[in-house]
Amino acid sequence: MQFHLVPVTPFQQNCSLLWCEDSKRAAVVDPGGDLDKILAAVEERGLKLEKILLTHGHLDHVGGTAALSKQLQLPIEGPHKADDFWIQQLPMQAQMFGFPSVEVFTPDRWLEQGDQVTVGDQPLEVYHCPGHTPGHVIFFHRLSQLALVGDVLFAGSIGRTDFPQGDHDTLIRSIKERLWPLGDEVRFVPGHGPMSTFGQERQSNPFVADKRFG
Ligand SMILES: [Zn+2]
Ligand SMILES: [Zn+2]
Q: What residues does the Metallo-beta-lactamase domain cover (predicted)?
């Protein structure tokens, strides 16, 4: 499995291209906007987009979803159904943040804890990690020890929990009970900022380092 990050929107959200080396079939994870930038990165690598994967319903992660899905006839997988209220509010979020207007959409498949999605021939495990939003999911490719965690965890920080249906304790539990068991070696792509590993965050992240919990 290969990946490439494309920072999009004024929030510099890490949109990711994920592809299967053998088939060149690819998924775009969290197309927040700037579709021209995303599609240029796809073309440059000779990839064939087959689906859109979403971690959660925030504008900067899903703003380009409806347009991209329509343009290329791509199915949409994720997030968990509990984020539907965020997706329904997309036009309002766009107005609030001064984004170009966006359309509401309905994913072809809502995801749940324990589900699996595929990119080409490669399987990714799905973990439900509520706290930042109630329907947030993360994707894990076990073979390459790579996780795409959206706004659950960042290098040196964690997702905000002051939004409707956000909850700090729930987020901490998601990180400790759903992410850490995947292993210290796992590299992760956060929704914003640089990549890191779970082991590094367990050591030095002021919000979730092991020493904080004794
Ligand atoms: Zn978010
Ligand atoms: Zn975000």
A: 12-192
- What total number of domains does the chain contain? 1
CA of 123 to the centre of ligand 2 (A): 24
Closest ligand to C-alpha of residue 30 is 2
Query: What is the 22 CA–ligand 1 centroid distance (Å)?
Result: 32
Residue 100: predicted pLDDT: 85
Q: Is the pLDDT of residue 99 over 90?
A: no
Using CA atoms, how far apart are residues 91 and 199, in angstroms rounded to an integer?
A: 38
What confidence category does residue 198 fall into, taking pLDDT thresholds of 50, 70 and 90? very high
* Closest ligand to Cα 135: 1
Cα(13) to centroid of ligand 1, in Å?
9
Q: Give me the torsion for CA of 96, 98, 99, 103, rounded to 10°.
A: 40
| Contact predicate 55/191, CB 8 Å | yes
In this predicted structure, what is the pLDDT of residue 110?
98
Q: Which ligand is nearest to the CA of 32?
A: 2
> Does 212 have pLDDT greater than 80?
no
Among the bound ligands, name the one nearest to the CA of residue 159.
1
Q: List, for residues 16-43, the tens digit of each pLDDT value.
A: 999 999 899 999 999 999 999 999 999 9
Containing domain of residue 97, as a range? 2-213
Q: Does the bond joining 31 to the residue before it have cis omega, within 30 degrees of 0?
A: no
